[in-house]
Amino acid sequence: MKVNDDLVGTVLGNYTLEKVIGHSQFSTIYLARQFHPGRLVAVKVVQAQAPRRDDFFLRFRREVTNIARLDHPHILPLLDYEEHDQLAYVVMPYIGSGSLEQLLKREGKLAPQQILAYLLQIASALDYAHSLHAIHGDLRPTNILINAEGRLLLTDFALAHLFESTADADMEAALYMSPEMVRGEPLTHYSDIYQLGILLFQMLSGHKPFKGESTYTLMRQHLQETLPSVAALTPDLPLTLDRVLQKATARYPSERYKSVGELAQAFAGAITMMDRPRQSLAHHLHFPISNGTSGEPGKSEFVVAPVSPQLVAASSRVPVQSVPVASNAAPRTADFGFSYTHEQVMPLPSTIARKPDLFRYFVLKCLPLFAMVGIGTLAVLHILGAFATSSIPPSEQARLAVSQYYDDLNQHNYRAAYALCSPDFQRHTSYERFLSSYQSLAHNDISFKQSIARSPSEVDVLLQLHTQEKAPQGTLIHYYRWDGLIDRQSDGSWKIEQITLSSAPSPDDI
């Protein structure tokens, strides 16, 4: 039900409602102009349902006061809230660049690495809110905004708590309800974990897991059915993702992940399976039973044998061994006990006798020697090329590596930037930690102060770093002294070995 559609032109306090820009379950969202300081804002008008509960506005004040104290880079802040003529409303910054729902309508489904980047932002916001006993309760794509810099912002915290009955839930809300929400039980952070599991399924597969013609059908599915296999619907996804989503959307809260951060860690570990060869069951090794056919001993042919349906069924029943993940350790993945075979062969007796071929015999005997000589020559050339003296001084090559590093960061090519860090650096800093540290920052005014070559393969680089960080209170500007060691690797490339950052009050102090 859409409410408050006739308020365009109405003045609520310090705000003039100009046009409707969206609807949520029990509210209407307006683009409004604030008289002072004369800016555009989003005003969400909430109207209590009939029959009106006497304590609705009391609960509204309590819930909104609770979420107004949330201060996080990935949570849309509340600017104001008030009651006016039997209506309640909240005021938020206007984000006109779109939402996750619009992105999914354009793209259908998202790449797992992009989903992980979004999940890390959502997990950071929800774990922070949960630590302050604030539950979202209405996680869905329309309530996840994307600002102009590509940063996610969660909105609509706690408003779902104002309406305790599920009888008036709309179809969109029913698609993301947790079982305990359907049963009318008090919400906990486990409900957010369940809803986030549904949302991850949608981002991975491009559609919602449950379908129905009524809210009752959808609610019954949440109560009685398990999530479909996302790996079966999207063959390029690893099977480990099914286990992650099944646990996140377990029927009972106690069977789900303990926190959103734990879910994000498990998701990150699961998608690392995509870098391994996928298990192929197209063919299987099958040894034939002799039927008494005589063949020439010592001769064999090879044929490909298709897998039998019984073997496919048996393989699908291989038990999965769970690998625990420590809360302060890097994500680990489970070993499913499969051997990664793409095509299996089996011997078949040959009935064809062949005459010896001297030329072929000579080529086959000498071919391994030729291959070894060629590989040895390439290896020598590679080593000589790696350590040959370059026409570009080491200090300049190191500076080029650092410049490329920050170019990649500013263009959001985080994988490429991470690849410019040395293997030792990567062993101490995981990609997920690296991503969470840099994705909310913009770097500019990077000025090299000095580059000192310790040796032909080690260069100390000192530079001035100026960063900008978007925060609820505005743009935060920081100045840093960046002191790094750049190493030349065995393949001749230059990579960042270590970085030391120290704050500087102004550029003059760097």
From TrEMBL:
Classification via InterPro entries: Kinase-like_dom_sf, Prot_kinase_dom
Annotated SUPFAM superfamilies: Protein kinase-like (PK-like) (SSF56112)
EC number: 2.7.11.1
Domain Protein kinase, first and last residues per copy: 15-268
Transmembrane segments: 362-387
Keyword Membrane in record: yes
Keyword Nucleotide-binding in annotation: yes
Record PROSITE patterns: PROTEIN_KINASE_DOM
Keyword vocabulary terms for this entry: ATP-binding, Kinase, Membrane, Nucleotide-binding, Transferase, Transmembrane, Transmembrane helix
Pfam families (UniProt xref): Pkinase (PF00069)
The name this protein goes by in its record: non-specific serine/threonine protein kinase
Species: Dictyobacter halimunensis
